[in-house]
């Protein structure tokens, strides 16, 4: 048991280590470190948007810039929120307290809870390692292309001084010394990509913890008849307290992340549309490697959108399961005092929990088709206008 609890708590420890590098973790008084990193980040965004202005009219360069700039703008918002949200600190503390004080009544509850948290663990480790490999390849791709070229003219050409990110440098980098300095200057953006994925992992951990709590609650409600009449009233009262706490946690998570999720929804939809537009219109005339890069960007955006819809659907489904459990616990055979308590539980059970984008778009598997339709609408508009 302790080993399993320790494994789950390790997820927060790993996220804390990642965010602490840039002073982002909200529980540490690293304000100077955060100010330095956020200032650096703002300078990068200025250079990125300046480059977008410079290449305006060149479809390929605009698309390449937007894919990067939109993603790092979303990361900037996530970093700022994680550092400054007091509500997030309360939610994390509540989740850690639940993990430390967790007492299972039987092996089935233990299995239910750790199935969700094991999924969080696999997602966290897999996604962060995958993001690390991806950004490593993207960061060192210009160097690999330069070193792999056998043509001496390529090394002497100014076009060979390609940076890993689309930015306006404001100074000449056509000599090796300036190019190396600028290349190294952009290295911290490697860390920004890891922070983006870590923020998503934090959201997944919190949502799956809530789903596990809801699943255990529905299991206990269905089996409340196994207790004596004297204990049923106390059990139902405990259900009310647990359910109210879960509702607070779920609504708090949505309040914290709904603006970030709106940014993710719009940003990934745009990235998906412009990436597919570039591939469709330039497949015959562009290099296969460039087209594969944009296909890769489109796949990442699609997977991210599907992931948000999946965890949002799981949260809503577990909420429905709790609601159904209240009606399946043979409440009509219980004493009058129990029926009054159950009535309160049923009223709370009607409160549906969602993961939303700015509280107007609900993430679910059914709404995932709407995301695809929106992206295809963007794609159709691009093909019409350009």
TrEMBL record:
Please give an example of a GO cellular component term from this record. plasma membrane
- Keyword Transmembrane appears in the UniProt entry: yes
Out of the domains of life, which is the source? Eukaryota
Where do transmembrane segments lie in this chain?
A: 31-50, 62-82, 122-140, 189-212, 256-280, 286-311, 341-362
A biological process term (GO) from this entry: signal transduction
Name its cellular compartments: Cell membrane
Keywords of the record, alphabetical order, are: Cell membrane, Membrane, Olfaction, Receptor, Sensory transduction, Transducer, Transmembrane, Transmembrane helix
What is the recorded membrane topology of this protein?
A: Multi-pass membrane protein
Q: Which GO terms describe its molecular function?
A: odorant binding; olfactory receptor activity
Q: Which Pfam families match?
A: 7tm_6
List the InterPro entries hit by this protein, alphabetically: 7tm6_olfct_rcpt
Which region is the signal sequence? none
**Family classification:** Belongs to the insect chemoreceptor superfamily. Heteromeric odorant receptor channel (TC 1.A.69) family.
PANTHER family (UniProt xref): ODORANT RECEPTOR, ODORANT RECEPTOR 19A-RELATED
Name this protein carries in UniProt: Odorant receptor
């Amino acid at each position: 048991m302790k080993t399993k609890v320790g494994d789950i708590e390790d997820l927060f420890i790993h996220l804390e280590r990642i965010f602490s590098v840039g002073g982002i973790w909200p529980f540490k008084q690293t304000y100077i470190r955060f100010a330095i990193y956020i200032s650096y980040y703002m300078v990068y965004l200025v250079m990125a948007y300046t480059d977008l202005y410079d290449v305006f009219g060149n479809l390929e360069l605009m698309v390449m810039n937007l894919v990067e700039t939109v993603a790092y703008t979303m990361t900037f918002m996530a970093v700022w929120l994680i550092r400054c949200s007091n509500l997030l600190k309360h939610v994390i503390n509540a989740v850690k307290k639940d993990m430390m004080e967790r007492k299972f009544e039987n092996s089935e509850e233990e299995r239910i809870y750790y199935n969700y948290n094991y999924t969080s663990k696999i997602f966290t480790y897999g996604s962060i390692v995958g993001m690390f490999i991806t950004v490593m390849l993207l960061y060192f791709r210009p160097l690999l292309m330069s070193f792999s070229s056998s043509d001496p003219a390529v090394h002497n050409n100014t076009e060979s001084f390609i940076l890993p990110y689309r930015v306006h440098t404001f100074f000449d980098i056509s000599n090796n010394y300036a190019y190396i300095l600028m290349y190294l200057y952009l290295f911290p953006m490697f860390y920004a990509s890891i922070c983006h994925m870590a923020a998503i992992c934090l959201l997944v951990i919190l949502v799956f913890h809530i789903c596990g709590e809801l699943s255990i609650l529905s299991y206990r409600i269905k089996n409340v008849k196994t207790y004596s009449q004297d204990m049923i009233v106390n059990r139902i009262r405990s259900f009310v307290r647990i359910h109210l706490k879960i509702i607070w946690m779920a609504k708090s998570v949505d309040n914290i992340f709904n603006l970030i999720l709106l940014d993710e929804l719009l940003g990934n939809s745009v990235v998906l549309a412009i990436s597919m537009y570039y591939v469709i219109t330039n497949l015959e005339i562009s290099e296969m490697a460039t087209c594969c890069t944009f296909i890769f960007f489109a796949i990442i955006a699609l997977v991210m959108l599907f992931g948000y819809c999946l965890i949002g659907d799981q949260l809503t489904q577990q909420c429905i399961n709790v609601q159904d459990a209240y009606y399946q616990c043979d409440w009509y055979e219980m004493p009058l005092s129990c029926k009054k308590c159950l009535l309160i539980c049923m009223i709370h059970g009607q409160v549906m929990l969602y993961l939303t984008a700015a509280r107007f778009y609900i993430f679910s598997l059914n709404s995932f088709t709407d995301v695809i339709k929106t992206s295809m609408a963007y794609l159709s508009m691009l093909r019409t206008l350009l």
